[in-house]
Amino acid sequence: MAYNLQIDVPLYSGNSLQMQVKYQNLSKYKKPPIEATAPNGKVVKECTVYNGDVLRPGSTQRQWVDEDDKQYAKSELTFKYEGEEVQENSMTKIFQVEQFQPLSNYTDTYVIDKYYEVFASDNGMKKDIDREIAIKTNKSQMYKLWEKLTKDEVIARGEFCTSSRGFVASDGYLRAISVEGKWGLEIGIFKEEKIFQHLQEGKPSEVQTAVQTGLKKRLKMV
After folding, report:
1. Average pLDDT score over residue span 123-133
2. In this predicted structure, what is the pLDDT of residue 12?
């Protein structure tokens, strides 16, 4: 499913860029369907058990409850962090580019959780001619941004929440894509910062070792 998004890029060559796009999660990874069977041949599944009773899916629900077991609706609650009231996330409608960072940050500094392909929107126009004009206009703006990201070897960072859940806003990294002569844009969501503890400085000196013979060859599938 594709979602609408406006991308704002301030102060690009003295002017701002703005484009209406759609984004879509293209991750195709699926866990293989592994089936567990008991010694008697029956298929078994992992379930939640309480006091020996199996709790079937749909038989339980989560509620907001105080120490006296009184239940509350979420709309009645106030959420705080370290004594200060906090606001729940809202789904990002405008991706505001806050800064440009080196392209190497995308692979060397941050762990990217999910990625979304970005493509030109038709702005919801009804007539074919209006849809065509909207797509061409947005695609032109996208290409200008792609050129900047490619030429300067940078990524564009901004807040990017794909849902209205949770209290910690996520950041997105807009990156230029070049594959077999074709171009495009993607947004990767920041998961965590990479922390390396064994980085080295300078080129290590080589150690000369005797060549061993008579070793058996190891087979390895590429």
Report:
1. 94
2. 60
Q: How many domains does the chain have?
A: 1
User: Taking a C-beta distance cutoff of 8 angstroms, is the pair 160, 172 a contact?
Assistant: yes
The SS3 of residue 24 is strand
Does residue 35 form part of some domain? no
Residue 94 is predicted with a pLDDT of 95
Is pLDDT at 127 greater than 80 in this prediction? Answer: yes
64 part of a folded domain: no
Structural domain harbouring 17? 2-27+91-193
Is there a contact between 79 and 72 (Cβ–Cβ < 8 Å)? no
Total residues belonging to the chain:
222
> In which region does residue 51 sit, left (phi positive, over 0), alpha (psi from -120 to 50) or beta (all else)?
left
Q: Does residue 48 lie within any of the structural domains?
A: no
**Residue whose pair of structure tokens reads 């990524």 in the numeric block:** 155
Nearest to 6 by CA among 150, 188, 144, 141: 141
Closest to 145 measured CA to CA, from 2, 21, 4, 3: 21
CA angle 216, 220, 222 (to 5 degrees): 150
Is residue 196 pLDDT above 90, yes or no?
no
pTM over 0.85: no
| Measured distance CA(24)–CA(124) in Å, rounded | 17
Q: Would you state the structure tokens that stand for residue 50, as one six-digit string?
A: 């309480």
109: alpha, beta or left? (left if phi > 0; alpha if psi -120 to 50):
alpha
**Residue 139's CATH number:** 2.40.290.10
- Give the pair of three-digit tokens for residue 3: 């979602």
| Domain presence at residue 6 | yes
